[in-house]
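Researcher: Here's a chain I'd like modeled. Treat it as a single chain, no partners, no ligands.
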Amino acid sequence: MSGLRNGEQRYSQSHADVSKTRKGKLAALLSGFGIKSFGLTVICLGFIFWIAYTKITQPKKIENFGIAQSNLFRLTTSDQREIVKQISMTGAAWFREALVAQDDDEMSSLLREIRVVNEQGMRFLAVVLPIPTDYDDEGPAENAGQAFSQRCGWWQGSKKLSKLNVAKFGARLRRQLRQIKANGLSIDAFEIGNELDWFCFNGDLPADRPADDHDLQVVLRGYKEFLRSAAEIIRDPQLFPDSKVITFGTANGRGENGSIKNPEKILDELRQLGEFDFVQNSIYRISGVGIHIYPRPFHLREDIFSIIGTYKKHIPSNIPIWVTEWGLDDDDFSIKNPFHLVNGISEFYRNLKDAAKFYGVSIGPAFYYCYVGCPTALKSHNIQN
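Model: Modeled as a single isolated chain. Structure tokens:
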């Protein structure tokens, strides 16, 4: 939870095998024609050059390096394609975006976005969020207005998760996932919710004081039904039964006004609410625990070690931590200073790896939250190192 997000509302065959297949077909074609046609020869040589150029210009994907973006599906098709291509050129292996299309036009655009991400060889983490039509009252949230905008960056407010109409939400999610599946598109992981431990994304929490135990229980009751509904739909054999399911990325406000003091305890509570285990059961199993880390730029190691050490005590050893958002809130690490930004990103991943080794925990992908212009800045520097 950071000033970095101010003003923003967020959410095989190997190349080698493909190359061999193409070259084999090309050889057969040339042999069959005896290379008698000069024009055909030129075309074929050009095709070989295109294959080689593609392999050279496409950077190697950096495992566990992801980029988080918001609302690309609301951009034009050409802008969408260009930004995704730039993100791919950074070496990112993962891409994160929210499933919040609210009408047919937005859904068509979202399908195009997913297709472009798939074509660029990146894996897709989809953030599952409620939209206004998932509620009985589809109007603005109770906390909407100027005061909310000054704190969170948008005026519409945050709906109360406890008031979600789970049946309406489930029907909408199932319908959209069927569309994604029918179009032959891939989603590799689903994050169920976003920063629901912070009032900017959950109206069940108070804005003017830290959350207390009663607030926590309200959040838990709302989240358990949201999580269960989403996970059961995703695990439908006709939809995405093999995709990973991740709990919502926690904002980790640590008890400031509007936040839950110890969000790491949410996982404990989900396993103790009644007789149903909301983490591992006969229908679905949580594949990872989502967290967000916005460390102080000049205290990276200290802050990363602190938060990983805190969560280690509350996560089963067989469930990895996914850092579904992270960022550096300082002008020295903005897109205006791309060299420093790339160094900061590299430093973050080194320390995250060290913390995982120190505490003996498994770490999944970590997604750098990337503003407009960020992909261009990153791809112009060697993030591979």
